[in-house]
Specification:
With 163 residues, the protein is mostly helical. It is 65% helix and 4% strand. It is elongated, with a radius of gyration of 23 Å.
Amino acid sequence: MRRERQNVENHSGCALAQAERQSVRFYSLSAAIMARRHAYYDQLESAQQGSLDITPWLLWFLDTLKEALEQALLRVDRVLIKATFWQRHATTVLNERQIKVLNRLLDTKGEEFAQGINARKYQSLARVSKATSTRDLAELLEKGCLSKLPGGGRSTRYSVMPG
């Protein structure tokens, strides 16, 4: 049964990929299906047991494809933001810790650091003392890599400067 399900998933993705006639795809239909696999199995079962009307399955499939394409667009946007940031800071002198933290901020933009980064989080990511984290953040602010978010004092948070 499991192999049968895997084959169906592979065939759904393969048929779409062949129809596109592209050697590279920027979205993952299989990942979108796996994220919704319970609904996928329900839709397949319903389509196999019901009438010959496959409209509900097609609607589900197209919605899943739309989700996969939206996720791909978010990934492309993130890559472009990161590339633009590093292009703008190609000559900015940074230490390894700062580069590591900036890459982490850029890779998870809008997710893990939706509220920005503070000295304590920097300290944890870079594995440095509180004084070093405060100093590194001040340097990143001065060099235009980070901007200060509203608020201050102990709760001061920073965000990557927009491109």
